[in-house]
Amino acid sequence: VLCRPTSNRSGLESMVSRFHVADLGDAEAMGRALHSARAHADSESLQVVHNAALISYARRDRTRLQVANVEGVRNLLEASLAAGVQRIVHVSSIVTSGFAEGGVARVEGDECNARSLAVDYVETKLAGEGLVLDAPDSLNVRVVQPGAIFGPVEAGSNSARFLVGMAQGKIGALAPPGGMAVVGVRDCARGVRLALERGRSGERYLLTESYLSNRELFREVGLRLVGRDPVRAVVPRPLWRCLGAAVRALSIVHEPKFTTPQAMRMLGVEFNASGGRARRELGWDPKPFGQVLDWTLGEMRRRGLLPSR
């Protein structure tokens, strides 16, 4: 597993036999890591799952996003070629498939319309995915595009902040007008493995179990966390755009830490995409999202990250 010197490895140490320390932006370190992996692979084929990325909707992180999501991918591909890697799965994102229009779920062949959102995370994930799909045939690449991933998470992550905010009643009364297709973390991992084993070279595979509007997601989480539906209203899309414009104007002076203009644009559209190809071609069979949510909240309560009911 590739990690930075400062990475928290506690969740992986029981499962990983060897860590390779390198930063995505350091081409030489990436090369050393891949050559070390090649040496330990002996005569076995060397396969790579590229799961590293930066998720941020803050303007101040534009350069970091470019380094992690674009230059890091380029460095990995070059290092993989030099090390004789024979297969790569690149973990992209549902955002590169675009957002749904007219209630029609997106599929792998659709041209991405999400550039219109002018979101740095989307732009860099598209650029990185493009590098992968343009890579030499010898790397035998395939791409997975997970939806919003749910599972037990550590304190400080975006998912943890959302769930803790829901438990504390700070989030949920007003639901943004958009939504997101969802998937459990274990199902996502299985999808990655199946893409590595059975996927077709040069293909994309959306990993989504179902689609929930923000209103539906808030309701499902609220019922499980506090025993009631917290949503009082869904913000109409025109009003949401006005709120986004106001936040954008205020951000000229000081950009909020989380509720940034880019984040609001993402929350206002429907990232609804079908995981049908993964089911048909890979034999992928994800668990219903309700079961995933029950497991997620139960595990986080057990770890003390959420209050007991």
Describe how the helices and strands are arranged.
Blueprint: E1 2-3, E2 20-21, H1 27-41, E3 47-50, H2 62-83, E4 87-91, H3 120-133, E5 141-146, E6 148-150, H4 158-167, E7 174-175, E8 179-184, H5 185-198, E9 204-207, E10 210-213, H6 214-226, E11 233-234, H7 237-251, H8 261-267, E12 270-271, H9 276-282, H10 289-302
Parallel strand pairs: 1-2, 3-4, 4-5, 5-9, 6-8, 7-11, 8-12
Antiparallel strand pairs: 8-10
Task: Give me a quick take on this structure.
With 309 residues, this protein is an alpha/beta fold. The chain is built from ten helices and twelve strands.
Side by side, the strands of the main sheet go 3-4-5-9
Largest sheet: 4 strands, parallel
* Rg (C-alpha, Å): 20 Å
Number of extended strands: 12
CATH architecture name? 3-Layer(aba) Sandwich
What's the oligomerization state? single chain
CATH level 4 superfamily: NAD(P)-binding Rossmann-like Domain
CATH level 3 topology: Rossmann fold
Strand composition percent: 5-15%
Unreliable runs: none
Structural summary, described in words:
It is built from ten helices and twelve strands. The chain has helices at 27-41, 62-83, 120-133, 158-167, 185-198, 214-226, 237-251, 261-267, 276-282, 289-302, and strands at residues 2-3, 20-21, 47-50, 87-91, 141-146, 148-150, 174-175, 179-184, 204-207, 210-213, 233-234, 270-271. The protein has a single domain, classed as Rossmann fold, CATH 3.40.50. The protein has 309 residues and is an alpha/beta fold.
